[in-house]
Amino acid sequence: MLDHVGFSVADLATSRAFYEKPLKPLGVTLMMEVTEEMTGGHGSHLGFGKDEPKFWIGTGPRHREPIHVAFAAANRAEVDAFYRAAMAAGGIDNGPPGLRPHYHEDYYGAIVRDPDGHNIEAVCHRAE
After folding, report:
1. What's the mean per-residue pLDDT of the chain?
2. Which of 1, 21, 24, 112 suits 85 as a labelling partner, its CA being 20 to 30 A distant?
3. What number of other Cβ atoms are within 10 A of residue 98's Cβ?
4. What DSSP element (H or E) covers 30?
5. Distance between CA atoms of residues 47 and 29, nearest Å
6. What is the pLDDT of residues 49-65, one digit of tens each?
7. What is the phi/psi pair of residue 52, to 5°?
8. Separation in Å, CA 67 to CA 8, 111, 120
């Protein structure tokens, strides 16, 4: 349904260092760097993904309110690894790994806040 999602961050280098760690257990890596010069003065951007960049962070006007982005995990172990890596990278706990039966009985997720306060989640919908 979605082709890609992106938002601005306060410090691109800080956010890059943060996102590279918790996305790695999900198989998501930095795939593309776009410079200010390449965009004709419309900011610098980093694209993360598996086969192609689908998650983008960059410079530019910041969002007033935190946003929420959830990454799909293949299994609960990936959710756990995401959470551990995010916390080690300086993330702030906003919901440790666990079942969230108020969504559905197999919803297993973990949520952290990134350096800008955005809610970043890893979620697995499979029963294990």
Report:
1. 95
2. 1
3. 14
4. strand 29-34
5. 8
6. 999 999 999 998 887 88
7. -155, 155
8. 11, 12, 8
Alpha carbon distance 24, 85 (integer Å): 9
Domain ranges across the chain: 5-124
User: Cα–Cα distance between 16 and 100 in angstroms, integer?
Assistant: 29
pTM: 0.93
Q: How confident is the model at residue 91 (pLDDT cuts 50, 70, 90)?
A: very high
Instruction: Convert 61-75 to b/e letters by CB count within 10 Å (16 or more is b).
Output: eeeeeeeeeebebee
Helix (H/G/I), strand (E/B), else coil: 84:
helix
Is beta strand 119-124 parallel, antiparallel or unpaired with respect to 68-72?
Answer: parallel
Pairwise CA distance, residues 38 & 3, whole Å: 21
Domain 5-124 CATH assignment equals 3.10.180.10: yes
Beta-carbon count within 10 A of 102 CB: 7
Instruction: Give Dmax over CA atoms of the chain in angstroms.
Output: 48
